[in-house]
Design a protein that fits this description.
The protein is mostly helical. The chain has 18 helices and two strands. It holds the Pfam family Zn_ribbon_LapB.
């Protein structure tokens, strides 16, 4: 049977036309998809700017489905999920990104950091730590170390926190000497006296201007019965961190009385009060004066002198407590009302977040900031 070449000559043009038509249809579909994906993306941005996060997420999911290879859409979607507290969905998005073989090194590091932030937001500290450790040597190294520092502080792992703080300081990320001294003080609290004293002395060497190491050392010395040494430590505190004296004014009076150094303590406290009129310092002074035999009327006049210098409801309530009123039968009710009104003014307030507490904290329980509590009470700020 002879093969007819005419069929080949006829089929070639037909195949060419069909191929051309197919390419045109694919090109049109590609252009249509490219138009739809950015449209969905910008729609999501618009919803996000208008704080309509639910609609923004729907728009980004639509955009990701139409263009699954665009990493930026995945990052936007993952960050939205994390902000809304949907950490499981955020983790899935960022883990999907990390599983892609075509992801650039920069986007891989970015995905790893985002995944670590997801775990941190979810409170999965061990998984967050593992994810952050993988970012050593990347562009996210400094940020990952700061996040690790937060994790170790929250878990009270002071040795690892100290290691990370040292790395941050040596990489020119700022001074962490104050935090290092706190970490040493925290470690000292769990040690026997001799080891604790060594750690506190190291903390003083690390941050000579920090108040806490000397205060903790003075407490340790007082507990051991070394009141002379405790007073010397508090005297050194008055020189290195004079603003912290109101925190230890009563302790100064106590150790000085035990060591027979009342005159020296009065001199130290009077100098502090002359510089800053703190009621805590004044009451320590009054306690020493009463024990030394100063007439009670003269002692109580110090409250009036304080009121001339500072408007203090607490001082007024303390003065009225020892006075006889014209209608003395109503004194208890008046005193209770004054004390009730004055109680909130005796608190300490975090300068970073405003969290108030009856006691002074070195690290705020609310925002976790260090040294954010002034040594003076709310009324005196």
């Amino acid at each position: 049977m002879d093969f007819d070449l005419s069929w080949i000559l006829l089929g070639l043009p037909i195949a060419f036309v069909l191929g051309w038509l197919a390419s045109r249809l694919d090109f049109r579909q590609l252009r249509l998809d490219n138009r739809l994906a950015p449209k969905a993306y910008f729609k999501g941005l618009n919803y996000l700017l208008n704080e309509q996060q639910d609609k923004a997420i729907d728009a980004f999911i639509e955009a990701v489905q139409k263009d699954p290879d665009t990493s930026e859409l995945h990052f936007a979607l993952g960050n939205l999920f994390r902000r809304r507290g949907e950490t499981e969905r955020a983790v899935r998005v960022h883990e999907h990104l990390l599983s892609r073989g075509d992801l650039s090194a920069a986007d891989r590091d970015r995905s790893q950091h985002a995944l670590a932030m997801d775990f941190l937001k979810a409170g999965l500290l061990d998984r967050a730590e593992d994810a952050l450790r993988k970012l050593e040597g990347t562009a996210y190294e400094a940020r990952s170390r700061l996040a690790l520092l937060s994790i170790y502080e929250r878990s009270r792992d002071w040795a690892d926190a100290s290691e990370i703080a040292h790395k941050l300081e040596t990489s020119d990320q700022g001074s962490f000497s104050g935090r290092q001294s706190h970490y040493l003080c925290e470690q000292a609290a769990a040690q026997p006296p001799e080891a604790a004293q060594a750690l506190l002395e190291k903390a003083i060497a690390v941050a000579p201007q920090a108040a806490r190491p000397r205060i903790d050392l003075a407490i340790l010395q007082q507990q051991a019965g070394a009141n002379d040494e405790a007073f010397k430590t508090l005297l050194a505190l008055s020189e290195s961190a004079p603003a912290a004296i109101p925190l230890v004014a009563d302790r100064i009076a106590t150790v000085a009385t035990a060591a027979g150094l009342t005159d020296s303590a009065l001199e130290l406290l009077e100098a502090s009060y002359a510089h800053t009129a703190s009621l805590d310092v004044l009451e320590a002074i009054l306690g020493l004066q009463i024990r030394s035999g100063t007439p009670i009327t003269d002692v109580r006049m110090r409250y009036i002198q304080h009121l001339e210098r500072e408007q203090s409801l607490v001082a007024a309530a303390r003065w009225i407590a020892g006075e006889k009123l014209e209608h003395e039968e109503f004194h208890p009710q008046i005193q209770r009302a004054l004390d009730h009104a004055a109680n909130p003014l005796k608190r300490y307030r975090c300068a970073a977040c405003g969290f108030e507490a009856k006691q002074h904290f070195w690290q705020c329980p609310g925002c976790q900031a260090w040294d954010s509590y002034p040594a003076r009470r709310v009324e005196e700020l």
